[in-house]
Amino acid sequence: MKRLIGRVDTDRLVQAGKNFPFLVQTLDMGGRPFIAALVNNVWKSTTPEEVLALYLVELRIMAESKLKRPVKNVVLCIPVSFSRFQLTRIERACTIAGLHVLRLIPEPAAVALLDAQQQQHMIHDNMDRGSKKVALIFNMGAGYCDVAVTATAGGVSHIKALAGSATGGEDFLQNMMCHLLPNFDSLFSSHEINEISSMCLLRVATQYVIRKLSSEESVQIDVDLGNGLRICKQVSREEFEEVNQQKIFEKCESLIIQCLHDAKVEVDDLTDVIVVGGCSYIPKIKDLVKSVCKRELYKGMNPLEAAVCGTALQGAVASGISDPLGDLDPLTIQTAPIRIQTNRNSFVSIIPRNTAIPVHKELIATTGSDNQKEVLIVIYEGDAEKREGNHLLGYFKIAGIPPAPKGVPQIKVSMDINASNVLSVFAGLIMPGSQQPVVPIMEVRMPTVDDCYGCCVEALRREYLSTLNFI
């Protein structure tokens, strides 16, 4: 569900979801996708956040059974590449499940927190308070790949840079299924019951192959998919790596290089390289990270439990529980730039990528034409060159600008992200010679758009393109 939640139905990942062994319903209009299930021979639709809420309810019941008390609060770790709009969908799922979100943290930040705690214990045992460590954390799960560079000193962890993409174990699975069955798309296009059953059989068999190839050089696959379809062949590890070289492994390598560059850290500066997540068992992944970082992998934590343990530590911190060996609260960052649109496809960044949180930034803009009466301020998250590649966070209009030549009115746009990661945008108009805003300052919390924000983008373009002419 993490692949679908908070995405519009025109998104590439949602469109790829049509290869899932369940029905993803889309109108392809920039609205939200729906998940359909066949119940008593009737298709019933629900949303990705409602499905996620069902998982959270089950987890809450398990936690309450173990703890013998009610559980009302939750801390979740999320992929680095999640947009702020996706975070609101996660929060909605938690609300449906009867949970209050204390904090949402990037998955590698959770791993960094666990690493910081381990460093605290090492410092305490060795009495070495001058140690400083720089670690690269590579986390790859079912749906996402995240990379972080962290600096830890005295048990305090600072995230220097984050990078992430929607690349994960599901991509390995999809690539191998298409490789094993070249006409995969045409065979499973209608999502009839027998097709879904065959797809599930193929997924299970392919997962088995990928898992076995982590410890063996080759594996035999023999699966009867029904309807006259049968796959019987030998698959080698070399074949698996070749199928995924360009689509996955090269992307992973570029993420590591990008994160090191953003953190202004050289490979020789790294003291630890940590690989975690469900895909950490794949030999090529481990070899790739070691090759780029030129260092052996850190083996002091369980790759499958690291993010969970770190999130539990963050839950303790958020609940006011302190570690007797020192403070544990990682200093985190804004993972994607927050920008305003200045015309059809131009943007100006106000909060750059990898800016430490909390933060306050300002920008002075102006009108782009004589006697311009109003300005539409549109806020996006992302660093894509074109509008379609960024996430719309919201918009508001400043009207009542007094007649003046272009470049004379001053429009002050401020952005503030507090310690709880809440983004607020302020804007006001100041004319030369005046110290006070001509129109009242506007304050808007972002994101303001809800479902169907893809439609909002198109409506803004048609209706207000002329008022975007400023800066």
TrEMBL record:
<dbReference type="GO" id="GO:0140662">
    <property type="term" value="F:ATP-dependent protein folding chaperone"/>
</dbReference>
<dbReference type="InterPro" id="IPR043129">
    <property type="entry name" value="ATPase_NBD"/>
</dbReference>
<dbReference type="GO" id="GO:0005524">
    <property type="term" value="F:ATP binding"/>
</dbReference>
<dbReference type="InterPro" id="IPR018181">
    <property type="entry name" value="Heat_shock_70_CS"/>
</dbReference>
<keyword id="KW-0067">ATP-binding</keyword>
<dbReference type="InterPro" id="IPR029047">
    <property type="entry name" value="HSP70_peptide-bd_sf"/>
</dbReference>
<keyword id="KW-0547">Nucleotide-binding</keyword>
<dbReference type="InterPro" id="IPR013126">
    <property type="entry name" value="Hsp_70_fam"/>
</dbReference>
<protein>
    <recommendedName>
        <fullName>Heat shock protein 70</fullName>
    </recommendedName>
</protein>
<dbReference type="Pfam" id="PF00012">
    <property type="entry name" value="HSP70"/>
</dbReference>
